[in-house]
Amino acid sequence: MNEKHSIQLKILGRPYPIKVGEDEEEQLRDAVNRINDLLSKYKEQYGNKDNQDLIAMACLQFTGKLITLEKQLNNNNVEEQIDDIRENIDEFFNITK
After folding, report:
1. Domain count, the chain
2. Average per-residue pLDDT in the chain?
């Protein structure tokens, strides 16, 4: 069983305690590193913005990428389904000959 344990993640120096399973911890730490890297770039680029604005900009960027990946995944699934249907039709016609 995957027991949860407490860790603390920091985004822009602010701590966020969270309970995670062992299989989630590495992925979440990687996510926090990516978030902080992007926020640092935004802070350099838009120094006069407050942290809330920077976080909102990062959320928009990551969500945009997520939506693009979801669309690609959905398109791939449709193509796979079409291929499966074609194979089934081919098998059907080979059987009935």
Report:
1. 1
2. 89
pLDDT of residue 1: 59
**For residue 15, what are its two tokens?**
């701590």
* Residues in CB range of 69: below 8 A, 6 or more apart: none
Instruction: Using CB atoms within 10 Å of the CB of residue 36, give its burial: 0 to 12 exposed, 13 to 18 middle, 19+ buried.
Output: middle
Q: How far apart are CA 94 and CA 17, in angstroms?
A: 60
Q: SS3 for the chain, per residue?
A: CCCEEEEEEEECCEEEEEEEEHHHHHHHHHHHHHHHHHHHHHHHHCCCCCHHHHHHHHHHHHHHHHHHHHHHHHHHHHHHHHHHHHHHHHHHHHHHC
Phi, psi values for residue 49, rounded to 5°:
-80, 145
**Structural domain harbouring 10:** 4-96
Q: What is the pLDDT of residue 82?
A: 83
Handedness of CA 67, 70, 74, 76 (dihedral sign): positive
